[in-house]
Write a structure and sequence with these properties.
Elements lengths: L7 H48 L3 H14 L4 H16 L9 H18 L3 H19 L8 H11 L4 H13 L4 H13 L4 H14 L5 H13 L6 H16 L5 H5 L4 H12 L6 H17 L3 H14 L6 H14 L5
Helix pairs in contact: 1-2, 2-3, 3-4, 3-5, 4-5, 5-6, 5-7, 6-7, 7-8, 7-9, 8-9, 9-10, 10-13, 11-14, 13-14, 14-15, 14-16, 15-16
Amino acid sequence: MKPSKASPIMKWVGSATAILALAAGIGGIGKPVWNRLETRRKIDALLSSESVQLQGHDYWSAWRSLEQASQADPGSAKVQTAQEDLAMEWLEKIEVKEKEGFSDIAEKLEPVLTRGVASAKSKSRQADLLAHVGWSYFLRIREGRYGLDPAGVYAEAVKKDANNPYAQAMWGHWILWNDGPLEDAEQHFSAGLASHRQQAFVRQLQLAALMNGGESYESEIIRVANAIRMEHGAPDHALQHGVFSIYYFKLLHPNRATTRFINAVPPAEHVATFRWLFDTYALDEYNSKLRSFYLSALEEAAGQREEALAGYRLVQQQTVGMSGSLPGAVEAGIQRLSRPQDK
């Protein structure tokens, strides 16, 4: 007896059954895959938003974007790294609004930093995060919190990464904040610069620390500004604003410290640093006259007599009929440079 051929209709039913079974299998596997893809797309979109917000220094919005990304995938290493990077930058550039304190922000960010210290794979990354934990302590201390030890955390960071730029710069700042020896602070700033990483941040914090110290550090401020110029750095507005006022008392109202201030660096370098700082600095009409006078006084000290005399005469023309210290100082400069030079 010949075997009967399979019924065409039965064969079709069998194929349909197989197709349905396969579809069911794909559906079972496909749903979680689809969910993971959706989660990844959502996180990528939130990270993109955070990046834009960070560029605009909108730290609160950037923080909220990352919180949403963390809720979508609490274990995402990419999101956690972004939170740590945001926390560090926010603490470095922290500004507070009315009815808001440094502590409000520092206490919010610290858990992210300490979590990062525990999970970071490199010693350098651990030290970066630890340094910012110490900085968060400093911010709370300046608002009256006690019992926190920034220097201890900076020391722990330095054990992990000897020349860590954040820890060393923040440690130097902390020493001067507490009126400690300039020499000790300078060792920390020098160590931070030796890392050849985050040079601008180290210099920024060094200048901020020196400016907090007032008149006693004015010559050191010029030395650091000159170093930044020679490192091909760029002056920021805070530096320009803070340094410009120093010249008023040192050059327009000279005293015993004036010569030491002018010679904080070689006088010709002081001229170059002054121009680097203020040639493009926006000033009102009166302060523009002061700038021209200051430059002439520095050129005179550097032996650039023709340039200085031309500058003094220009300011003299601009101050006809004016009263105050400036016209008299300009006239004195012209008289000095108009005398025959000793041979």
